[in-house]
C-alpha cells in the first residue's frame, strides 16, 4: 500500500503538526507520535507488516519485510554513515 494512502486512511484531515495518535482500529498503543513519519512506521510495523525489519538509522523511517531488502537499502542509502558488522 502506498504510504500516502495509508495516511489518508489512518489520519484523516490531520493538518496540524502533532502529536499524532494511531487511529488503527484495534491498536493497543495509547501513546503519541511526534512526527507523521514515526506514526507511519508504527502503522507499517505493527499493523500492516508485523515482523518487518526497521532501518536502524535514527533519521530513516523505512522498514522492509525481508532482511535482505533492509541490508540492500542500508548498503545503498547509508553506506557512508552506517556501521558495518559483516564478518
Ligand atoms: Zn497503532
Ligand atoms: Zn534507512
From TrEMBL:
InterPro entries, per database record: Znf_C2H2_17_1st, Znf_C2H2_sf, Znf_C2H2_type
Which branch of life, at top level?
Eukaryota
Give start and end of each C2H2-type domain: 53-78
Q: Does the keyword Zinc apply?
A: yes
Task: Spell out the Pfam families in the cross-references.
Answer: zf_C2H2_17_1st
One of the entry's Gene Ontology molecular-function terms is:
zinc ion binding
Keywords assigned by UniProt? Metal-binding, Zinc, Zinc-finger
This protein is called C2H2-type domain-containing protein
Q: List the top taxonomic levels of the source.
A: Eukaryota, Fungi, Dikarya, Ascomycota, Pezizomycotina
Amino acid at each position: 500500500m502506498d504510504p500516502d494512502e495509508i495516511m489518508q486512511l489512518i489520519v484523516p484531515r490531520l493538518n496540524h503538526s502533532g502529536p499524532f495518535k494511531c487511529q488503527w482500529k484495534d491498536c493497543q498503543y495509547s501513546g503519541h507520535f511526534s512526527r507523521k513519519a514515526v506514526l507511519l512506521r508504527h502503522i507499517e510495523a505493527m499493523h500492516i507488516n508485523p515482523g518487518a525489519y526497521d532501518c536502524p538509522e535514527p533519521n530513516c523511517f523505512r522498514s522492509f519485510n525481508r532482511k535482505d531488502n533492509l541490508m540492500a537499502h542500508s548498503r545503498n542509502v547509508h553506506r557512508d554513515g552506517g556501521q558495518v558488522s559483516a564478518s
